[in-house]
Amino acid sequence: MWRDLVPIGRSASTGGYFRQPWHAAELELRAWFREAATTRGLEVEGDPFGNLVAWWGPAADFAATGKVLTGSHLDSVLDGGAYDGPLGVVSSFAALDLMRERGVEPARRLGIAAFVEEEGSRFGRACLGSRLAVGATTWEVARELVDRDGVRLGDVIEGGESTMLDGVGTYVELHVEQGRGLIDLDAPVGVHDAIWPHGRYRYDIAGRADHAGTTRMEDRADPMLTYALTALAANEQARVQGQRATFGRIDVRPNGTNAVPSHVTGWLDARAESDAALAALVEEVERRATAYAERDGTSVTVTAESVSGEVAFDAALRDALARRMGDVPVLPTQAGHDAGILQSVGIPTAMLFVRNPSGVSHSPYETAETADCLTGVEALADALTGLVTGEVVV
User: Fold this and answer.
1) Do the domains 198-308 and 2-196+310-389 match in fold?
2) Considering the chain, what is the average pLDDT of its residues?
3) Do 366 and 81 contact (CB within 8 A), yes or no?
4) Are 355 and 187 contacting, i.e. CB atoms less than 8 angstroms apart?
């Protein structure tokens, strides 16, 4: 399965992946998902937003039991890594194969999910597919989102209402680790216990366009200067407070080499160990930006585009799976996941993660060793077996 996925959406120049939702590479991955499900005799269900689930067992046989869901996502960030998302989907199919080889007889229906637009790389909302699937974001709001080319989501898909997750009682997601926790502990797999709160904030900084050569420095209203100082302030505050702050995307108008810009838009990604810590970090960065703007003769407007509060995964499920896997490490994650969305609406959720020897993610350097991935498949199969047979009760 992994060999089939490796070339899809891969850049020949960087080795990174461009698998943005509703573009050719991501649509090819969805076709692969359907084929992988069909060859295993699974029933594929989609919703109006592009989310997919492949179900094991006829629905009528499990009418009185809560469904178990596993899976992840297939899309990537711009120039991203191979493992973030697809590893969880491939591992889910492999775990199902292993369960069948072991003769597992499920008492609960099992689904393998592929959520759409988890990264928010096209329409700017992380975990958009899962948010829409559970009703955490409404279609009325989502359909007005536009991508970098000005394309409106409502013109890409019809939307509507999703019933795909009705009856789901448990969700388990496997993911490549996006840090160095398992490296430091010398462990191939682990369990996440919580997701740090995080958010995306758009900084619109307006100034005055002017000539780069003839305009004296003291006569300028340069929004790029305000932006640069704000980015430095975000870095400083995150380091001082022990949190995370990143300006990773910027849009400049008119974007000319020999012109002072008239407008700069920058997107802040902020993450912290608690909701209070996130609020304090974001508030201080905005305060600094406002002060710089007053000094520079510019103006700044901050818009919170998406904010996710702290998510603690179901403790009983986490502990049961950790024991079943042999008391593996339990660590928090600073990355957002579809698992956090499902847990936030009351679906008991757990996350397994597989060691990434590079410690790098959202990058072509992201990796995982085959032996660790196979250990992850076994751990996932053990976890799902306990859930679908009733040996683990949530």
Assistant:
1) no
2) 95
3) yes
4) yes
Residue pLDDT, tens place only, 56-105? 987 777 766 789 999 999 999 999 999 999 999 999 999 999 999 999 99
Q: Which of 40, 71, 35 is nearest to 56 (CA)?
A: 40
Euclidean distance between CA atoms 184 and 156, whole angstroms: 44
216 annotated ligand binder: no
For the chain, what are the domain ranges? 2-196+310-389, 198-308
Q: Is 73 annotated as a binding residue?
A: yes
Task: Say whether 263 counts as a known binding-site residue.
Answer: no
Q: Which helix (H) or strand (E) holds 238?
A: helix 223-241
Question: Phi-psi category of 89—alpha, beta or left, where left has phi over 0 and alpha has psi -120 to 50?
Answer: alpha
Residue 378 assigned as binding residue = no
Query: According to the annotation, is 175 in a ligand binding site?
Result: yes
Report whether 148 belongs to an annotated binding site.
no
Strand partners, 267: 202, 249
Q: For residue range 332-363, what is the model confidence (pLDDT) as tens digits?
A: 999 999 999 999 999 999 999 999 999 999 99
Write down the CATH number for the domain with range 198-308.
Answer: 3.30.70.360
Cβ–Cβ < 8 Å for 390, 107: yes
- What is the value of pTM for the model shown? 0.89
- Residue 192 labeled ligand binder: no
Domain topology for 2-196+310-389: Aminopeptidase (3.40.630)
Contact 378, 385 (CB under 8 A): no
CA angle 23, 39, 27 (to 5 degrees): 0
